[in-house]
Amino acid sequence: xxxxxxxxxxxxxxxxxxxxxxxxxxxxxxxxxxxxxxxxxxxxxxxxxxxxxxxxxxxxxxxxxxxxxxxxxxxxxxxxxxxxxxxxxxxxxxxxxxxxxxxxxxxxxxxxxxxxxxxxxxxxxxxxxxxxxxxxxxxxxxxxxxxxxxxxxxxxxxxxxxxxxxxxxxxxxxxxxxxxxxxxxxxxxxxxxxxxxxxxxxxxxxxxxxxxxxxxxxxxxxxxxxxxxxxxxxxxxxxxxxxxxxxxxxxxxxxxxxxxxxxxxxxxxxxxxxxxxxxxxxxxxxxxxxxxxxxxxxxxxxxxxxxxxxxxxxxxxxxxxxxxxxxxxxxxxxxxxxxxxxxxxxxxxxxxxxxxxxxxxxxxxxxxxxxxxxxxxxxxxxxxxxxxxxxxxx
Length: 394
Hints:
By secondary structure, this protein is an all-alpha fold.
């Protein structure tokens, strides 16, 4: 797909956007853009709390550089500009309401300008913003029409893949910050924002065995670069990324980093603990990803009836966990973090500690659930679920 390019000055969407008089633009908190750590945004976390988390944090920091570098060079097949990436990051941050994240991306976006103020560019920015908000706030609102609109406004296959990865990453970053701020009883949100996410329709989870297929045309090996082939082969070794790998390989750098992140936080559905699988099923149920739910449910060897309780919705799940305080504490913490990360607080952590979860266990489970939410959005945003058997790697 060839990208149409335009020239001009500015656009109109965010309160922090640029105008024609660039010299007068100042973000509300300009210092928020100047951080040494672009993932944790210089949040002060005791070393002892993250002593076992250096590996995945290093990958998360690298992803910040890959998806949101200081400069972006566009070409015919990769047209997602620096301005559009920051606009997306701020839109998603505003949906999740993590103030530290909003301040950072608003401060980085404020001095930037879009390529022009033409009708075509305004329409493209409108579609990018609308898709970002929908996938972040209510993933199942994304449809074939949503993807077609991105295509029509000039985004290439590579752009759409990177764009969806960016939305998932900001959600992961927002929830990680919410968890770590809760340890210090810091407020996550300081200004009013979006209402909480509604759980997906139970009808999506009626079938026990499903498969996922991409809506877009996957990368063909004969046209792939050596880096793309390497990313594809590594991703196919992961049961969590196997279905997505042919499509995500068009953005090889992001896929390679995501593969490392899943290996460290969610190594494989077959090797995960009952708590990990419980969190994955709950997050997938809320976000509306039957394929991710099915994968976790197939690996489940815990309490009989738990997957069906999640399928049937919040009331059934509350009834199931009534006399199970440990499971109830985890379900409540994961539910709040997934639906309303801006409301996650030390109260949820306290409930976990009262059930003998350690700090490191709590962090791993909660951050792992945030990563599961990223994978949910990739599958909901880029493909379809079908009621049929699927073939996984041996």
